[in-house]
Every structure is written in structure tokens, then in C-alpha cells.
Amino acid sequence: MELLDLIVTEVIPETREANTYVLQCADGTPVPYEAGQFLTLLIPFNGHEVRRSYSMGSAPGVDVRLYITVKRKENGEISRYILEHWQVGTKVRSLAPSGRFTVETNPKQSRHYFFLSAGSGIVPVFSLIKKILTEEPASHVTMLYQNHDETTIIYHRELEALEKKHATQFTRVDLLSHPMLHEMPSRRMNNGLLEQLVGAHEPKPFQHRNEKPPTLFYTCGPPSFMRMVQFTLRVMGYAEEQLFREHFTIPVLPPPTLVIDPSPKKVQLTYNNKQYEYEVTYPTTILQAALNLHIELPYSCKAGRCATCTAKCKSGEVKMSNNEVLTDKDLGQGLILTCVGFAATDVSIEF
Ligand SMILES: Cc1cc2nc3c(=O)[nH]c(=O)nc-3n(C[C@H](O)[C@H](O)[C@H](O)COP(=O)(O)OP(=O)(O)OC[C@H]3O[C@@H](n4cnc5c(N)ncnc54)[C@H](O)[C@@H]3O)c2cc1C
Ligand code: FES
To answer: Which atom of ligand 2 is nearest to the CA of 304?
Structure first.
């Protein structure tokens, strides 16, 4: 398994509940990553290792230093541990950056991007916004960011600076459910407000053509926020291909109910230029069977949500019990999620 040995080089308080941690490789080598991706940290906790993923708020090509921002989750074990214990010099192990909440920019294209986030959902969104503003000067970015009050806004000063620097390209709308300043309206995102805000900020048609720039939506926030945004945008007529999401929570999956012949199947696996061969029997997943044999494949959520365990099925058939990240195009290219992937025939898999 490709592991990174990282070290905390600076701790920056963001709000009462969130800190930014600047990280670098202990041996000084750069960490290659894409804007919007996350690190999966392997944290020793109470005698065993737990995994938690944290998005990078930094953007390569814009920020010199890589950083993550951790917000305390109420009664959350690991976020509290990090906020209470991590300091300059803390060493931390991580899987290589992964995730598909990314954007391909092109300096010649003109698009309209909406970013909808709440709380710590701003972290990957901030990274993507910086990338787009820097690399796509003809595109427009509208950010709708929900918070409790003025003091809970993460990256407050950086967002203000970005707004000034890219005044014609970047529109920032802060929604506060409990503003401290009386002149600020109290606003909480719901279907009606979202429809109204998207309508107000939708792109105008290009000057010489009667068509609008393509509009894309990127969403990251608590589950109820994500569900509401997804539902409303679909009702408004936006297509699934225009909507991108990053989930921070891991669902508890019910036992799989796929119809798969329960006889053992052969898995031929290529990972890190090594070949492995093993058997797997439904309902054990391709990932779990490998982990049981101490083949250290990368994974994080084990629930079909984060894409850390993505591989390519080169031959045979894999059925998945859940998939919240791979697109139809990915599936067409043979990509699978091994954590929720079951071998329906003998298969050949390549990471
Ligand atoms: C792709 C991704 C990016 C994220 N980015 C950020 C970020 O930028 N900032 C931020 O503050 N938070 C982020 N999170 C949330 C973060 O990973 C933790 O879930 C959060 O800090 C709460 O963890 P906790 O241990 O404090 O809470 P707890 O309530 O103790 O844990 C939450 C529960 O979620 C489950 N869980 C969460 N992650 C995993 C995992 N990797 N493997 C197995 N089980 C898991 C566990 O069952 C655990 O009981 C992200 C999550 C994901 C999936
Ligand atoms: S480990 Fe997250 S999708 Fe498989």
C-alpha cells in the first residue's frame, strides 16, 4: 500500500471548532494531488488503527503548502482527538490522495460553476474554487455557503481576499441561520431559497449566441443538505451529469441482496506491479477477501462513497451493492469499487 509519512508544520485556528493543519512529507518530497481530493489518515487510537478522510483545502498550482482543515464533530472521537492533540511536529500516516470530486479546467472554456456547501463542506469546495478562478479566467463561480453565524465561517479572510481579487468572476453568498449582526438576514437553505438563489445567479446567454454557458453544481455538506440540494436541482431540470457531490459521512449499508452464484470465484489482482491470486465467495467483497489475506489494498469508507478503492475490471463480471461515486462513463470504462464489489464470475482486477 502506498503510504505517506507526513508531519504537521503549522496549526492555524480557523474557528472555535476548526483548525487548519499544514502538512508536508517527512522526507521533504512533494505530495502530488488534485484540487478537491482528500487524504485518508491512518490514526493510532486506543490500541488500534482507525481511518478518517480529510479533504485538502489547498489547491496545487495556487498554494505552495498542502493543508487540511478539521472541524470538530459533536461527540466525534477522531476529530476531537486531532483538535486536542495535533501540534507542530505531529507525525501522521496517510494513504495517497484520492477522490473524484475534481474538475478538469481549460483556460479557453467559459462555464458557470455553482458551489453549495455548509460547515466543513467548504474545504474541498475552497480548493476547487481557487483552481477554477486561477485556471479558467472566462468562467464564473457562484458560491453559496451555509453557516450558523459569522464566527463559524471557515476561510473567512481568504474568501474575502478571493472576492476582491476576482471581483468580476466570483460571487460569494453567505447564508447565516443565526447571524450576530442584526442587519444580516437569518437564512437557512431550503428548496425555495435554493431555487431563488440559483435563478438569481444563473448565467446570462453568451452575447453573440443564444445559448448559456454550461452550468455545473458542486455540493458538499451534511447529509440532509446534500439530499435537499440534489432533489431541488433535479426538480429544476438540471441533469445528473451537471451535479457533483462529496459526502463526508459514511452510510451503514444493509447486507447485500445481490443475486450471485455463491460458489467460490477466482480473483487475479494486479496492485503496485505485483500479481496476486485468491478466491472469493459471496457475500465477501473483493476488497475484504484481499484484506483477509493481508494484501494491503487502499480503502477508506468501505461503503461505495469515497472511491479510494477504485480498480479496473479487466475481465469477468463484478456486481456492486452500492455506488455513489462512479459515473456511467467510469462504469463504461470498467471501473469498479472493490469495497462493495462482488465477483459474479472469475475476474481479473487491476488497481
Ligand atoms: C471524502 C471525505 C472527506 C472529508 N473531509 C473532511 C474535511 O475536510 N474536514 C472535516 O472536518 N471532516 C471531513 N470529513 C469527515 C471526517 O472524515 C470524519 O468523518 C469526521 O471528522 C468525524 O469523525 P469523528 O471520528 O470525529 O466522528 P465519529 O462520530 O466518531 O465518527 C464518525 C463515524 O463515521 C464512520 N467513519 C467515518 N469515516 C470513516 C472511515 N474512513 N472508515 C470507517 N468509518 C468511518 C465511523 O463509523 C464513525 O463512527 C470527510 C469525510 C470524507 C468521507
Ligand atoms: S473504500 Fe470508499 S468507495 Fe470503497
So the answer is: 3
From 2.40.240.50, 3.10.20.30, 3.40.640.10, 3.40.50.300, which CATH number describes the 265-350 domain? 3.10.20.30
Residue 311 in contact with ligand 2 by CB distance below 6 A: no
Listed as ranges, residues in the chain with pLDDT below 50 are none
User: How many Å apart are CA 103 and CA 281, to the nearest integer?
Assistant: 37
The percent of the chain in helix, strand and coil, each rounded to the nearest 5, is 25, 35, 45
Give me the pLDDT at residue 210, please: 63
Is there an atom of ligand 2 within 6 Å of 309 CB? yes
Which cell goes with 214? 454550461
Rg (Cα) of the chain, in Å, rounded? 21
pTM exceeding the 0.90 threshold for the entire prediction: yes
Q: For residues 13 and 156, what is the distance between their CA atoms, to the nearest angstrom?
A: 12
